[in-house]
Amino acid sequence: MNKLHHSLITTLFAALVLSGCSASSNLSRQTDAMTNQQQGQALFAQAELAAQREDYGKALLMYIEALNLKPDDAPTLYNIGQMHMYLGNSKLAERAFKQTLTLAPDHIGALAQLGIWQLKERNSAEAESTLTRAVILDQQRLHQSEPDTWVTLDAQSPVMAYNALAVLYDVRGQHQQARDLLQLALAQTPDSALLLSNLGYSFYLDGNFVQASQYYQQAINVQPNFHRAWANLGLVNIRQGQYSRALQNFKQVMPEEQAYNDLGYFLKLEGRYEEASYFLQQAIEKSPKYYELAQENLADVRMNLASVGIH
């Protein structure tokens, strides 16, 4: 009996020890998992703060550390792509956005950023497909169904995706569709010089120079050093026959001699050869730097004048 009793006690003790080891092992794994999760959350929060301070390099490193703790996290991958964009690493950003979409195919932010990058790379067909998907998903998010008309954007909407898709519409000559998108984006960010300028350009392409001029002027009021708006406003002035005003607008963003040369060049393109000749001669007189370029433009102008019997 004593031997049997001793054997039972030994067996029970061994079972308890093994059970305790198993429980301890499970607890250790759970603790490690909790620790990784907490560390990842802390790193993510610190990365966001660094990004807000525009310390994108530091933010990137922290996001990468967070991703190592949770490799298949789409939000972290997306933010890594964002940091690469800010740092000018466009190829790495593209890869991160594509990886994000592999994990979360309907990630609106990743679709928007990838589409914008594709447009910059002149992959128009891919860009249109990607941007259209981003915009449709955003509209569905706002409307919670298939909207029949455009729904007003909110702070989460990818405004620049709407802008980029509008640019593609304008290139295709679908100016009203482009303006619909730009107006939506502008309602959300009314002080965007870029959106105002692009809206002006859409009207310019459509031949509505009065509206184009108004939007370019608004863009300049918002951002006085916005070169593109000044230059495009000068082009509108040329189309309206307001050469002195065009010259003044060009001078806002370029040296005087270049302003004369560019004005003469655009007048040449419009077939206004006599006016072009005057401004090109002014460019030559004002700077030897523009002598050769302006002389070439002037030679073209004189050849065209001769062809129509004007000397």
Automatic annotation (TrEMBL):
It comes from the Bacteria. SMART domains: TPR. Pfam families: TPR_10, TPR_17, TPR_8. Keywords: Signal, TPR repeat. Residues 1-23 form the signal peptide. TPR repeats lie at residues 40-73, 74-107, 159-192, 193-226, 257-290. PANTHER family: CELL DIVISION CYCLE 16,23,27, CELL DIVISION CYCLE PROTEIN 27 HOMOLOG. This is Tetratricopeptide repeat protein. It comes from Bowmanella pacifica. The lineage of its organism: Bacteria, Pseudomonadati, Pseudomonadota, Gammaproteobacteria, Alteromonadales.
